[in-house]
Structure prediction request, 155 residues.
Amino acid sequence: MSSVASDLLSAARRSLVDVPKEGLGEERTSRWRGHRIVKIGEVWHIGVLLLTDEHVLATAEVLRAADAGRRGYTAESARARAARRELALKGGFAEGEVAHIGWSVIDMDAVDAGGESGPLAMRDGVAMVRWSGSSWMPLAAYLDERIALMRGIVD
Prediction:
């Protein structure tokens, strides 16, 4: 079985070793501590992908932990977003720390076998990523571009 996509992502991990990670969060509710977003790990955020040391995840909601404060909001959506940022703060993320939540695990075995999972797929033997609506791009080029941006290397 070919492991084209997995090999590309393993190489990406190796090239990101010295790049800072961001927080991976999960919503939790308990009787004693209430509703909150707790930190369960760290990831490299590569556009539509999140890489842990072992897994590949599909990006979902990204927020920055912050106190909701007493601001006036013109939109209910802004109020809801502020409340979500405060849940991350309540769950142990530091003020201003990025929290990735609502993510899903990508089945790399399915992708490597020629199928599709989350934003990754094999198309005619080429690992592809869906990055903007329905636009597909070769995963190798996508990773090269995103990693260069993360490192501040721009052509």
User: Anything to note?
Assistant: The helical segments are 4-15, 76-90, 108-112, 139-150.
